[in-house]
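Data card: per-record layout.
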Amino acid sequence: MQLAVHGGTPVLPTPHRFVWPRLTDDHRSAVNSLLDRVELSYYGREGEAEAVERLWSRRLEGRHTLAVTSGTAALHSAFYALGAEPGTEVICPTNTFLATLMPLVQTGATPVLADAEDDTGNIDPKSIRDAITPRTVGIAVTHLWGHPCDMDAIMQIADEHGLWVVEDCSHAHGARYHGREVGSIGDAAAISFQSAKLVFAGQGGMFAARDRETFERAVLLGHFRVRAQQDCTTELGRYASTGFGLNYRIHPLSAALARVSTEQMDPLIASRQAQLARLTERLSRIPGLRCPTTRTDCDRGAFYGYKLRLSGEWLNVPMAALVAALQAEGLDVHKPGSAPLHTTAFFTDEEVPVFRTRPAGRRRYQAGDFPVAERVWAESLSLPTFTFADEAPLVEAYADAFEKVHANLAAL
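The structure for this 412-residue chain is written out next.
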């Protein structure tokens, strides 16, 4: 069968474009109710913000939770509250989205990058151990594409060296490691509710802390007066009238969307995992395709991204040509958007013009420094995260298209 890119008939005559989220009547009702009441800002622990915080506190073993404007704000809050500051270093994955570690730049701390595991793409505990110096104060981990990091090994390293651990759970809503939901294991956690996530707020996020002092410091960073007066019950309460300078309060409309989608998340996770299991079943029959795998006693939860790894004869074809052939068949596939961070300008350039002075302690890297992360990225292809039963025909069509392209690899 001739490939569509060469003039043949595409598997999907109408190109598929993945769209998320699907709004429900419950989302619309929650937002309209706020509009009807003109409930458009919060200054305290109240309303939809308090409701979504309580939901996530229950999920995360009673952690102190704080709804904020974004997952990035939650990460900044975590790093600030735990003591990242000039002269300190925090070990971070190179294979992650920029927000996992770039907030460290605002604290003056130095992000120190570490390589990835080949099977999960997550930060490699051995690379963490190799990166520790006398200036290291913490570790940041991303549960990449929903797969939990090796938290037993990471927490052991942290305990041995007196380091704190921040979990970036933005890809991993509802994911579990050895029975525990991610976000409840380290010292603090950050969760994104950006609109592409299973739990969405449009823009929003959640900060969670193990201990009270870390929580109060995060409150003071992004809140003041009413909320800070309510939550800062230790000696830090003397600063509640001013806070520490930022405004990270979540918008009520965003909080409402996050609350409703949190209530809906577990059935959606189950449905998504069922659709992606079928996709894996079909694609795993095709030689050279390496489907996402999940380690024993781990659960990917929301499975934020379905990343297919290519091997064998697939790697004999330029990635651009493969993507073009699959897209011509009507598939919404592409290269992953985030290259390993050590290959990006901030970490490779001698000077960063946006700064009037060179950021203190900024480390420079180059291609080849973290070969596993580079290989994982080079071999990966992004597919949609199908969720709903009515997408089952699309799952089959995607598998059919991959079979078709595989049969015609020599022609590309």
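Known properties of this structure: The chain has two domains: 4-20+265-411, 25-263. The chain has a mean pLDDT of 96.

See the next section for split statistics.
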